Amino acid sequence: MTGPRSQRLRHAVRLSWKGLGRDLRAGDVRALFVALVLAVAAATMIGFFLDRLERGLTRQAGQLLGGDIVLEQSRPFDAALRGALEDAGLTLSDQVDMVSMVSHGDAFQPVSVKAVDDAYPHYGVSRVDRGTGPEALASGPARGTAWVAPRLALLLDLGVGDRLRLGRAELEVSGVIEREADPSAGFGSFNPRLMVHVDDLDATGLIQPGSRIEYEILAAGSPAAVEAVTSRLERLRDEGVEVRDVRRDRPRLGSALSRADRYLSLAGLAAVLLAGVAVAMATRRYVERHLDTAALLRCFGARQADLVRLFALQLLWLSLAAAALGALLGLAGQALLLGLLGSLVTVELPPPGLMPLALGVLTALAVLAGFAGPTLLRLRRVSALKVLRRELDPLPASAWWVVGVAGLVFGALLWLYSGDLVLAVSLLLGGGLALAILWGLGGLLLSALLALCARLPRRGGSGPLQALRLGGRQLARRRAASLGQLLAFSVALFAMAMIALVRGDLLDAWRDQLPQDTPNQFAINIQPAERDAFADALNEAAEARSALYPMVRGRLTAIDGRPPREAVPAEARGDNALRRELNLTWRADLPEGNRLVAGEWFEDAGGATREGDRASPVPISVESGLAERLGLGLGDLLTFSVGSATVDGRIASLRELDWDSFRPNFYVIFPPGVLERFGHSYITAFHLAADDRDTLRRLVREFPGVTLLDVEAILERVREVLAKVTRAVELVLGLVLLAGVSVLYAALTASLPVRAHEAGLLRVFGAGDRLLSRVQGAEYALLGLASGLLAAALTELAAAGLYGGWLDLAPRWHPWLWIALPLGGALLVGVIGQWLSRGIRRRAPAESLGLLGET
Amino acid sequence: MSDSSPVNPYPILRAAHLTKRVESGERSLTILSDLALEVFPGESLAILGQSGAGKSTLLGLLAGLDAPSAGELELFGEPLGDLDEDGRAALRAGRVGFVFQNFQLLPTLTALENVLLPLELAPDGDAEAKARDWLGRVGLGERLDHLPKQLSGGEQQRVALARAFVTGAELVFADEPTGNLDPATGERIIDSLFALNREAGTTLVLVTHDRALARRCDRCLSLADGRLAAIVPEEVGA
């Protein structure tokens, strides 16, 4: 049995291959091929680009941390762990952080010491002034030397070449650090930075039993190498080692990247959807043309299965060829994108991976099966009798069946791309509902427009009104086809508008997130006695500032009476909040940028607890993210040790807050009247112009005890990353617009034979070039106008759902859509339609009238 | 084959009580009623009738392209009523050729590719040589790579003739083969059709309203009011 069967299959393969070669002469097959190429090119281009950019940006974000992974503990790391990390392909750099005292002459100053090795830094460069102006250095200080922060230089009156004493060692100041390569490191420390070589630490004699020293391993490597040690990292977390990586510990960058990621995926899907619509349009024409072939083959003895195999194989070759070409174009396109980004992408990008390629091929097959499948099945049902009676075409596939299958396939792609089943299902259901409404509305709108056109005065000549009336009549004459085109154009305009709209709102949100006056300085250790004077000084000098928050350091010692590490979920045992002291504050009202998500803000709670009655815990408010991580809920009892005392708080509310705000934020807020009795200081954040060094000097002079932290470098880095992502987003938008135009092109190309026939008839009846051009122009413009109106409605609906559900943006109303889309639609469809139809208008009527049923 | 008596006593095509009704709403319209017919190998049969008489419907039924409402039909000795559409298609494969009024050439295929089409349904190493040969026989050996739109109506129908005979069909059905051609071209096509038929020893069943064409067949039947009546070809009027 295998012999004849495999022979038949080989024959079918040969036949389908030959048939495809012949078929490429037909316009619809070329349109189908182009649409598939476009779908694959869009999917792979965005896939490749996103994959590489994301990996590259993640690596750059790693620069903020100093490595892809940072391990930290209070004792040196053992050789076994080092070996394991190195075996996985990671490059290690050792770092030691401690707080110590440094002296120069008679002056002393506590400093935050960072000791680095020769491998420092993994990423980026430090900007250091070695006496000849700031320069970029991809290294740390040499042995026997030290780099000092400008503030330390100011406080100790140090300059390059001076010698300072750290413990028992004397080091030469070889540079003033303007920006560290890993600026976030040491952010938690309030003392000015002193950077030394790790080999000098022994000589200082500072490493003693009981010293508060943090040992760090900064590891850098490929994503695969990082992935390889994931389980090991989890075990380390359980053992109490602090493990940091980019996405987990930098929500600021993480959220921006994650939104960009989602946007680009969305744009990719929009391009695929558009290409799918183009495929569907081209397939209709392909099937119409192949009905005769199928009927003839039935006459000559072909079975249904033969037909199915023949056409399925032909289309399989077509889609594989399209996938190969599309993937190549995608690969070239992403290189072009990166080239266009030029110096913006300073990060070294990893080479393209295979996954986007596989996704591209899968996308081509899925788009073909989903958007063309039901229509293609019509070929199977062709009766041989059609060769004798042309009217015996099999009924077209039900529109709902076509849309249903396409929707399901698109939903599956949506799931694949977003990784979010709930989102995919809800978007699909919402999309289905929207399409049903669109169908009804489209029909009504078309009827209304056509009725309006029909009422236009019947005057002679070829004036615009006459053209509009005739154009409307042409549309009405093939109402079903017009409605189909209307829906296709609406979906195309909708997808284009959606991507443009989301891009605008996304960029706005990013801009809003980091306005020009985002605080770039933190002031801490403001003593209660200095509070008002400091606030006055800021009011005078700073461009913007946050409130002054009192701050008390406290350690979480019990949750509902149990040790925290026992009370929290296993995965939270290594959480920083359990290992370190937390900054606690008190406040009568909800801080700016905070939002209550559960419970109630305390009302006059201070009065009830003013006496500090330990037996009745005070109400407290906890940040919702921390609560979620630690498994905390309303009513849970938290015990803090503050100094030598203990304070109990019962969770009365949970708050969401914006960690991206560069304002002081607190995990735990107490009501007034509880923490005041403990020693406390104040913290605030403010914005100073980058070159306003005078104000900084004045603040340092007037408030010597206050510590000022410059976060401008971090802010700048974040802005830089967002700028890059923004550029990528804009380029991808261009691609989607191109895909949208291709749909219009495919749909209009598919309708050309019918339009040519109509034009031929009008010519026979005496219509001139001018009238034909106007009638066709009016027809296209009417279609575009109606499509734009529908697309505006659909865009508003979808945007409202998408913003809240996926992109985490506040929904907004977009009045300009209702003007731009109808006008833009009329213009776009009008221009493309007129351009495509120019050949039709040049044809002789006889040629046009013979067009139907041919290519 | 001018002798009207059958050489082979077994009919290649046999119909008995053949009836075709179509439902139109609540009404039932009988197009063909209780027809009986036998066609023997090697003969040529014309079914003559006015437009709308049901000629094409009858041809569709005889070729197994459609199923009758009632009656029996045998093609190559196989009862078609026992076969589904795929079975009937398999029965036709390589054994039945067709010539249509509107030629039914695929517009994107060249003359050669159109002729190759029926040969390609089954593996055949000589397919292209056969197709070239048959196109040469109909005088189009130099026009192999021309698309249908580059050929005249007569040339297109000659391509269709080559396609009908190329498989070595035992039975060729022709539906108004000259219907779309001017009389002079039609005449030349008919000459070709009968020449090829003789050469290949094929059985020919054609339906037409062209009496001149009908006169050239061995046998002639007239279809009117859904029924067949035998007429002598020589007595078919102009």
Automatic annotation (TrEMBL), chain A:
Record bears the keyword DNA-binding: no
Name used for this protein in its record: Putative ABC transport system permease protein
Its membrane topology: Multi-pass membrane protein
InterPro entries per record: ABC3_permease_C, MacB_PCD, Membrane_comp_ABC_pdt
GO cellular component: plasma membrane
TM regions (residue ranges): 31-50, 263-282, 315-337, 357-377, 398-417, 423-452, 483-502, 731-754, 780-804, 816-836
UniProt keywords, alphabetically: Cell membrane, Membrane, Transmembrane, Transmembrane helix
Keyword Transmembrane: yes
One Pfam family named in its UniProt record: MacB_PCD
Subcellular location: Cell membrane
Organism: Halomonas organivorans
Lineage: Bacteria, Pseudomonadati, Pseudomonadota, Gammaproteobacteria, Oceanospirillales
Residue ranges occupied by any MacB-like periplasmic core domain in the UniProt entry: 35-235
Residue span(s) of domain ABC3 transporter permease C-terminal: 267-372, 732-843
